[in-house]
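Subject: sequence -> structure tokens, single chain

Hey, anyone have a minute? Need the predicted structure for the following. Not urgent.
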Amino acid sequence: MTTTEARTEDQMSNSQTLTKAGSSRRSVVLALITLAQFMVIVDSTIVQVALPSIGREFGVSPNGLQWIVTTYGLTLAGFLMLSGRVGDIYGHKKLFIIGLYCFL
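Reply:
Had a minute. Here:
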């Protein structure tokens, strides 16, 4: 076996190792993004489930309850934009991890 062939085999094994590491990293990233999306859905569901109790407790009409849902959506959208800007400044990965820890 020549030196060139040995180098080629080393490069191929390194490439395969990097591909396996990249694949597992992608799986972790996909799992984290899926978890974050699940938390957003759970959060929205909690607001929807709480609406009848809010209406009874505060004597709010069905039209007033719609304002609660609208206000929640607008507030969420505003914080998403703010979070995007903060992520641009301090780093998206760091902000994402902090957000996950705060929610849990």
